[in-house]
Amino acid sequence: MEYLKIHPENPQPRLVARVAERLREGAVIAYPTDSSYALGCAIGDKAAIERIHRLRGFGREHYFTLICRDLSEIASYAKVENANFRLLKAATPGPYTFVLPATRQVPRWLWHPKRKTIGIRVPAHRTAQAIAEALDEPVMSVTLLLPGDDLPLSDPMDVEERIGKEVDVIVDSGPCHVDPTTVLDLTGAVPKVLREGRGPLDAIGL
Predict the structure, then answer these.
(1) CA distance readout (Å), 196 to 30, 57, 177, 206
(2) Beta bridge partners of 141
(3) Rounded to whole angstroms, how far apart are CA atoms 179 and 53?
(4) How many domains does the chain have?
(5) CB-facing half-sphere around the CA of 146: CA atoms within 13 A
(6) I want to staple 197 with a disulfide (CB 3.0 to 4.6 A). Which of 21, 103, 107, 182 is the partner?
């Protein structure tokens, strides 16, 4: 397991490039976001995704989220109606996850099996953004909430103690938050709040 200390405001390009390299090789990483720590892997890596399923202890119907580097990248992986663009622009980057119809850029086995949707977000955390930029595609991610825990992990030292032997890379950019993202379903005529979390609704006009 590699333990990489990356500055939260000025991520070191060499270390970020190493994380991206490991992701391309099939690694499962633990890394910080603007909510809690997350587990991540490359978008098309079935073996790595299976490992995350086992670590998190959830079934195949659980949503994964694509961590995108910026707003423009979202349109490659999700269908965004004009009516929702202003909302997305107001909320990114930030602690919001959007459920949107997936495009063909997303492997079918990552879609929600019934709704053909995918979770998308752009975190306001420089390290997470830098990793997605270096990888040159979104990072498949889930909240680092372990079976039996009430709160996700938010400190890299706790991550190492709990799952250090089960992940390939831990990215230490210091502690972060424990609140989950606010989740908004944008597949209907009006936005639907699926989970109210760290992202305030009034800040995006809801």
Answers:
(1) 24, 23, 15, 11
(2) 40, 65
(3) 21
(4) 1
(5) 14
(6) 182
Q: What is the CATH number of the domain that holds 11?
A: 3.90.870.10
Output phi, psi for 116, to 5 deg.
Answer: 55, 45
Residue (of 71, 78, 32) closest to 40 by Cα position:
32
Decide: 67 and 121 in contact? Cβ < 8 Å.
Answer: yes
Residue 133 pLDDT more than 60? yes
Separation CA 138–CA 175 (nearest Å):
23
- Please indicate whether residue 100 or residue 106 has the higher confidence score (pLDDT): 100
Supply the range of the domain harboring residue 159.
2-204
State CA 98 to chain mean position distance.
Answer: 11
User: pTM of this prediction?
Assistant: 0.90
pLDDT at 116: 86
CA 24/CA 140 separation, integer angstroms: 12
Residue 112 pLDDT: 60
Question: What does residue 106 show for φ and ψ, rounded to 5 degrees?
Answer: -90, 125
pLDDT, position 179: 87
Q: Is residue 60 pLDDT above 60, yes or no? A: no
Contact 93, 68 (CB under 8 A): no
User: Which stretches of the chain are DSSP H helices?
Assistant: 13-24, 46-56, 71-77, 82-91, 126-135, 156-163
Backbone φ, ψ for residue 17 (5° rounding)? -60, -35
Average pLDDT, the chain: 90
- Token couple for 46: 């079935």
